[in-house]
Amino acid sequence: MIPRYSRPEMVAIWSPETKFRIWYEIEAHACDAQADLGVIPRENAAAVWKAKDVEFDVARIDEIEAVTKHDVIAFLTHLAEIIGNDEARFVHQGMTSSDVLDTTFNVQLVRAADILLLGVDRVLAALKTRAHEHKFSVRIGRSHGIHAEPTTMGLTFARFYAEMDRNKARLQAARAEIATGAISGAVGTFANIDPAVEEHVCAKLGLTPEPISTQVIPRDRHAMFFATLGVIASSIENIATEIRHMQRTEVLEAEEFFSKGQKGSSAMPHKRNPVLTENLTGLARLVRMSVIPALENVALWHERDISHSSVERAIGPDTTVTLDFALHRLAGVIENLVLYPETMLANMNKFRGLVMSQRVLLALTQAGVSREDSYRLVQRNAMKVWEEGKDFREELLGDAEVLAALSEAEINEKFDLAYHTKHVDTIFNRVFGA
Amino acid sequence: MIPRYSRPEMVAIWSPETKFRIWYEIEAHACDAQADLGVIPRENAAAVWKAKDVEFDVARIDEIEAVTKHDVIAFLTHLAEIIGNDEARFVHQGMTSSDVLDTTFNVQLVRAADILLLGVDRVLAALKTRAHEHKFSVRIGRSHGIHAEPTTMGLTFARFYAEMDRNKARLQAARAEIATGAISGAVGTFANIDPAVEEHVCAKLGLTPEPISTQVIPRDRHAMFFATLGVIASSIENIATEIRHMQRTEVLEAEEFFSKGQKGSSAMPHKRNPVLTENLTGLARLVRMSVIPALENVALWHERDISHSSVERAIGPDTTVTLDFALHRLAGVIENLVLYPETMLANMNKFRGLVMSQRVLLALTQAGVSREDSYRLVQRNAMKVWEEGKDFREELLGDAEVLAALSEAEINEKFDLAYHTKHVDTIFNRVFGA
Amino acid sequence: MIPRYSRPEMVAIWSPETKFRIWYEIEAHACDAQADLGVIPRENAAAVWKAKDVEFDVARIDEIEAVTKHDVIAFLTHLAEIIGNDEARFVHQGMTSSDVLDTTFNVQLVRAADILLLGVDRVLAALKTRAHEHKFSVRIGRSHGIHAEPTTMGLTFARFYAEMDRNKARLQAARAEIATGAISGAVGTFANIDPAVEEHVCAKLGLTPEPISTQVIPRDRHAMFFATLGVIASSIENIATEIRHMQRTEVLEAEEFFSKGQKGSSAMPHKRNPVLTENLTGLARLVRMSVIPALENVALWHERDISHSSVERAIGPDTTVTLDFALHRLAGVIENLVLYPETMLANMNKFRGLVMSQRVLLALTQAGVSREDSYRLVQRNAMKVWEEGKDFREELLGDAEVLAALSEAEINEKFDLAYHTKHVDTIFNRVFGA
Amino acid sequence: MIPRYSRPEMVAIWSPETKFRIWYEIEAHACDAQADLGVIPRENAAAVWKAKDVEFDVARIDEIEAVTKHDVIAFLTHLAEIIGNDEARFVHQGMTSSDVLDTTFNVQLVRAADILLLGVDRVLAALKTRAHEHKFSVRIGRSHGIHAEPTTMGLTFARFYAEMDRNKARLQAARAEIATGAISGAVGTFANIDPAVEEHVCAKLGLTPEPISTQVIPRDRHAMFFATLGVIASSIENIATEIRHMQRTEVLEAEEFFSKGQKGSSAMPHKRNPVLTENLTGLARLVRMSVIPALENVALWHERDISHSSVERAIGPDTTVTLDFALHRLAGVIENLVLYPETMLANMNKFRGLVMSQRVLLALTQAGVSREDSYRLVQRNAMKVWEEGKDFREELLGDAEVLAALSEAEINEKFDLAYHTKHVDTIFNRVFGA
């Protein structure tokens, strides 16, 4: 987790304070359930709630852990200091440390997913707004980086919207993957604790009981979660790459917003670098790098080994914090992106109508000219544009053989941009709803 | 794709014959839709279906491609050879090669997903059967490779079932991800073809129209698809790893089936190697390796670049073929796995009751002995087992201080395996339904 | 291995014929060494060489394997068919299948490395030629895709040369990593075979004896090998990316060679797509994807498990074949790359001298103008260029306040491109030698 | 970077204090070189050294950066505060921020490599010691987790030594990869600064001048560096996996050291978990995960984009800190590993001599018994061992048909462990030198 690439809301999820608070809630709810079952006295369960509004003393817990060498025991000792040793004696009864740790990790991931969903929503809102603003801002579509046919800037935003909307659904599914809890004991048999405790605690924490756990919650869930974050990161890279291309000096159809005072270069006004989207490209790599270790974490030995733990201590916070930051950085970039529709048109016209040559070719064929002749006619006029810098439409209008097949109006119609935008509404309806 | 790790059903999906057949269907359905729209003559559309039952001549198409240097044109030329040049002249009108190629790739992936789902079902059926057979075959649960508390072999199978069942749901979601088609032209604007064509073709092929495409179907879909296969592969590794552990000489709770004639070693009967599950471990790595390039494929430049294409030519077939093979190999391993319940018990008893020491400790505490004293009592008897090879229960029954707190019956009860299996039914109901 | 992305020389290394030939050589040399040691009769060793020029019958070996279920035994049986059962009876004595298989795999990798080195050499030669051709073809250097300061096309080629030259050294090191052989028996103790056999066979095959092996040659070697190929692939992506940028419509400083007949688009002469470099970008992903499984192959269980085998059956051929093809495709692209020095200059002048503004700023400061005033002077003239399309030099020459600090000659000197190319020779000497 | 998995020496390399100190040294040495060249006054260069022993005020620099939004400028401003504005005015002249940042990153990586090399040395020393201690501690070699032939514990340590020794050489090569510096200006042309400055600064910092740089040092170097760390991590996983296997309850040939007070479980003395090596397995995954992003960082756009930066801010510290910690944790585990030679022998004898069956088979054949008969004889005695728990040697000695071919002495000789250890000295000489 790199401070400059983090937002406090997400960082807070991974603080010791948050962790201990969740541990506490698990223990307190478990005591209630144990009291319901008659396993522990009701008053002991009730006593645990005395700590409800107490802020746990992280330094004190660390101090105890330095002695006990066990984090959960250290916490329980501190809890006993607060609610009383006698009152605390049934806390954690029948439970295993992993019951607390694994369930807590999932609570943290669920909260992280909720924050990430807000980030996705912000990106979606920005994309939707910009898509509608530039619904009919015509720009050249490019395949292989080479001019192809006209499209619109709005369609570009709309396709990113559709992609990010899929990511939203994926993230919701990923959230459901890890929204489970387990309180099932040392090897998952509930030998020392009734399944009702797990059910109660999970209900209180907004989790589903893990249908079958071992000492741990199965890690295929987490693999799927991090794989999904990797896909979202790749979509961020996708959008960032488009913007980086648009901002490059020779294209300049868009620029990341530059505040008044901000300088890309001390003296060169054109030196406004797309540093935010370049940064997003790097952040995408960082998010993606958690996918492989998360997959490698699935095959734990027997009822658990602890190899996953160090991995998750790193990728749990790092990946969610980085992705969260990236989503908001991306949203900001899109919200404030400065767009240059005139440059879009100017770029499109770089080849003076040549991008329309296929339409002309098709028209000639449909007008009865043979495919070979059509091609020859288009080609000879295209070459004058390409080699001598002529205007394609004017050349066609001056070519008798062409005029023999197509009227002036028909030729002009081939240069009508509306031809290319006639289905924009249809597509927008598909993407944003009617 | 390695022949020895492939099944013909899946290989067939990726054959040139299958590919051309799908191309043909797309073109033929597109012609129907164009005729419906009045764009092309009905008889031309009808003529295309003359090739319905014709087997395309792959060698001939390759021959044409060697000249035209364009695969789709080569195919269309061959099609014209079959249905007649004149009849074929409206085929592909308004379409772009990518319309055919991308939609075909998704049809192949959908079919691959369907076959994979059958493989998952076979694994699930095997796991379910074995889980019920060994529902109460008690074995020691192990954390960190070290004996912990008793569990049952059935629970082991049941947790793999639950994991694989999640994978089934994930695979169904992944199938939906790539079950889209696009016939939207050079940059996705439908400039030269009506969206109705896309709708018709997709409906006929069992696909959903891609809401918004560029020249290509967006690759976040494929990234999600391959990421999901990577998760499934990791679950296969998980199961394979458990079996490899169980078969190792010192554990020997299970063995891959060895046919009568098969030899692990010419003279050593114990040399039956878990080569299938080791192989599955390697195959899991192979499946997983497609995840990163699939993620890297998402950020194509502008309306498309072709960098994804070579990647998909490799990982499309290789990953689905390998995973398919792995699922069936795994199913076979599970179906035929030879299990040794007596060895499970013998292993559990390696430490002569010591795995029950925590229950005794708890019982002493609950009987009013202080935590420190309880620990001391358990520890001193445990040490005799550990260091002198005594039996834990017998030692306890001969310890006056223990007997002062617990009756003989109470002590014996602590060694009752039923204590550990009492919730197996509950868990099975959660996993397999009541 | 995808046929269209493969070259026959590299494919041949991975053929069954090659594999059996290497097996044969290992067995024959081993017999010689065994005879030298007096372990087997000299005449039996000599007899093995009768098969020296025989082509092994792969179909026959497969046939035998179908019965024996063991590839090495099938080969040995076939060998006995050729040289005689009696003569063959000491072949393979004291050896383990892995001795043959692992040593063979390394021979194949060594040969693959040698072919890859030729590919790297071809790329280097092409880069060197083009670097010298365009040593002083000035083009704008770009950071963040935005114009920065002038550089030369030759420097671009030179830096790719330097990078690829490092890759050559890395590849040589990687070749040394896997240039070892092992004939050390079932667990590497030489219990049944003298180390002298290993030494003799390795010497004959151009390998170093593996200092200590188990049943297999340690896989950290192969991990390093494939990791190195991954780095080389990334350099290919680096060069490919530069070319793709140069070819994009708005930049057009270079183009992949288009043969006379080749068409990017039927009617648009500008539609020449950088499909080769896009393809190289994808191939780079394919090569890189072997790195992770190769790393995962290192931790085999005890003296070996067979999980690495399926991985290597795939990545051995696939990765070397793909990288080999990519190197030659890249070399071809560079050799034939069409460069447009006039467009380079035109692009550089897009902002009419603005890229020189930092030099002017520095000159003003050095002439005694305060930093703030210098900045103000440059900025006000830069803005006229930026907003009104004026020429930067002309504006400066017309600004009295600037002229008060700098003479006309001094101002003109700031626009001298030679200023930026004055160290090109120095750099070339560093890269190519004096 | 996770505090619990980090060592202060390595963490210190990545502190702001260290970073600013290196920045300072680069600037100060550059001033010296500039003075040597006559570009700036000698006294200004000398004045910079006034800050030689000053500790930079990180908080103050952060404060300035909050205003200037530029880290290098903030630092230079702070430096001016220390040495005087006038004295400082030539600092950084002709340089680009990246000159400082990239050279600094490489200095940090070089220092990190040096610390890592110490870690590797400690691991090597530990392995060497344990190898010699247990040179002839016989244990069973296992392929596929199944008993194969005897080997020795010393050979296991020796092979890890050889592997780690290769890693040392790789790490030294990786160190050389990134031991370069660049002071070459905005696009690497030295337009504004003489190459002599780069040479001087690099010499002072123990670096080689980068032969050709752009705005940045080429990232193939860093890719190779991190790929190498990934290989080393995989070797750590390899060793850790062996130890985890050795410690599992059923094998118990070795245990991680447990300090007197340490508890694996409150009451079960056998519950000593190999948590350190499990942790190392996870840490290996964390180190490896930097390989792919480092490879993706190579293809920067043109003369640089900044996408690599965020990646390196994370993986620079995280990967080196984690690997450093892992090396020392591993060294500690090996140094203190508790080994159980008696258990090794007991495990080997689990099948009462059956692991020698192949030697007996070979002896029978060599004694003139046909292959088929030899196999039958061995098999029938082996089966009595396998199925009835008999002792293999005794059975053979009681089998008249066997005795007809082999004398009692000959049979006994087949059970001599010295047969398997006779080349241990040879192998040790290869690994450790004569």
From TrEMBL, chains A, B, C, D:
Record-stated family: Belongs to the lyase 1 family. Adenylosuccinate lyase subfamily.
Keywords: Lyase, Purine biosynthesis
Domain Adenylosuccinate lyase C-terminal span(s) in chain numbering: 352-432
Organism domain of life: Bacteria
One of the record's GO molecular function terms: (S)-2-(5-amino-1-(5-phospho-D-ribosyl)imidazole-4-carboxamido) succinate lyase (fumarate-forming) activity
Protein name: Adenylosuccinate lyase
Species this protein is from: Pararhodobacter oceanensis
GO BP terms: 'de novo' AMP biosynthetic process; 'de novo' IMP biosynthetic process
UniProt-listed PANTHER family: ADENYLOSUCCINATE LYASE
NCBIfam families: purB
Enzyme class: lyase
EC number(s) on file: 4.3.2.2
Pathway annotation: Purine metabolism; IMP biosynthesis via de novo pathway; 5-amino-1-(5-phospho-D-ribosyl)imidazole-4-carboxamide from 5-amino-1-(5-phospho-D-ribosyl)imidazole-4-carboxylate: step 2/2; Purine metabolism; AMP biosynthesis via de novo pathway; AMP from IMP: step 2/2
Catalytic activity: N(6)-(1,2-dicarboxyethyl)-AMP = fumarate + AMP; (2S)-2-[5-amino-1-(5-phospho-beta-D-ribosyl)imidazole-4-carboxamido]succinate = 5-amino-1-(5-phospho-beta-D-ribosyl)imidazole-4-carboxamide + fumarate
An annotated GO cellular component: cytosol
SMART domains (UniProt xref): ADSL_C
Keyword hit for NAD: no
Gene3D superfamilies (alphabetical): Fumarase/aspartase (C-terminal domain), Fumarase/aspartase (Central domain), Fumarase/aspartase (N-terminal domain)
Pfam families, A to Z: ADSL_C (PF10397), Lyase_1 (PF00206)
